[in-house]
């Protein structure tokens, strides 16, 4: 299934618009990851554990988006927007949300 941030997909005319589709994933920040990420921030470098969690959450949210599109009979999603928000008490969780328009190309 094609997923694009653009409103159209070159070479694939849109036959039908099927409506808004979404995917949302909320992940908790593990205390140990927070401590090690803090060390990384202090000493420099990348926080690989956070990057892996973010990548997994993003992939899960996109998978939900694709599943909704498939349920509506679509084969592509256009106009996709990804958003990251800190939620929960003291910012203890991260929400990854993705929205787009399901289409049939």
Automatic annotation (TrEMBL):
<protein>
    <recommendedName>
        <fullName>UPF0145 protein IRL76_11380</fullName>
    </recommendedName>
</protein>
<comment type="similarity">
    <text>Belongs to the UPF0145 family.</text>
</comment>
<dbReference type="InterPro" id="IPR002765">
    <property type="entry name" value="UPF0145_YbjQ-like"/>
</dbReference>
<dbReference type="Pfam" id="PF01906">
    <property type="entry name" value="YbjQ_1"/>
</dbReference>
<dbReference type="InterPro" id="IPR035439">
    <property type="entry name" value="UPF0145_dom_sf"/>
</dbReference>
């Amino acid at each position: 299934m094609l997923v694009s941030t653009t409103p159209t997909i070159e070479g694939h005319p849109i036959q039908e618009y099927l409506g808004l589709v979404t995917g949302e994933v909320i992940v908790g920040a593990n205390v140990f990851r927070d401590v090690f990420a803090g060390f990384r921030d202090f000493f420099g470098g990348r926080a690989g554990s956070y990057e892996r969690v973010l990548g997994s959450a993003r992939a899960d949210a996109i998978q939900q988006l694709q599943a909704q599109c498939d349920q509506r009979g679509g084969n592509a999603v256009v106009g996709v927007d990804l958003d990251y928000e800190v939620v929960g008490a003291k910012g203890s969780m991260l929400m990854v949300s993705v929205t787009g328009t399901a289409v049939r190309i």
